Amino acid sequence: MVTEMNPIEHFKELVSDAMKHQKVKAGELAEFYLSSLLTSFLTVERLPDEPLATTYLKALGATREVQFQQMKQLGDVSLFTSGFFSDSLKRKIVDIDYYMAMGSASYGFLANMHRGGRNEDVAKLFGELASKFAAFADVLTEVSERSRLTSPIDILRIYERWLRTRAGSRKRYCARWA
Q1: Rounded to whole angstroms, what are the CA distances from 106 to 98, 99, 169?
Q2: Hey, how many other C-beta atoms are within 10 angstroms of the C-beta on 89?
Q3: By the 8 A CB rule, do 31 and 12 touch?
Q4: Could you give phi then psi for residue 156, rounded to 5 degrees?
Q5: Are 78 and 168 in contact (CB under 8 A)?
């Protein structure tokens, strides 16, 4: 019998298992956020071309609504890249530490933006994402490794996506079929 699982359920299971395996404690909202983040990157056609620092500086001078949107995108791209493409950042001018610092700072900015406001849960969520950024990147790395890549065609698709997004690739996957 074949059962169909939607992407959010699939990623929720993978994220939950990775968190247990790595002994990462997180709130339910943060776990759901990570699962939703992975689902959202299933359909991303192209990652931003602009350097992260440029986006960060532009966001600082923007309206509150634009700040939220840009800082969230910056944090999300940084977290996804840190988790799924960390190997591709080795030996680059901009390495994983840069992505982690920018992502953590962006989420921290969002947490501060919502502290003392009507929705303290949003402040707590982004505060947790900021403070546990490295641990969450490791969780996403494990999810990446456990993702169902079953053939060289899957690797080719990842490589083609990398060519479109310039985000990098996971060398260890390519080594499996070399």
Answers
A1: 12, 10, 24
A2: 19
A3: yes
A4: -60, -40
A5: no
* CA-based nearest residue to 54, from 43, 65, 62, 44: 62
Sign of torsion, CA 11 13 14 19? positive
pTM of the model: 0.78
pLDDT digits (tens, 9 = 90+) for 60-76: 999 999 999 999 999 99
- 172 — phi, psi (to 5°)? -65, -30
57: how many CB neighbours lie within 10 A of its CB? 11
Give the E-state strand segments of 2-153 in sequence order.
Answer: none
Q: Is residue 20 exposed (0-12), middle (13-18) or buried (19+ Cβ within 10 Å)?
A: exposed
Whole-angstrom distance, CA of residue 166 vs CA of residue 140: 19
Mean pLDDT of the chain: 82
The ranges assigned to domains in the chain are: 7-149
Spatial CA neighbour of 99 closest among 42, 141, 159: 141
CA-wise closest residue to 82 among 61, 106, 56: 106
Q: Specify the residue for token string 């500086």.
A: 57
The pair of three-digit structure tokens given for residue 64, joined into one six-digit string: 């509150």
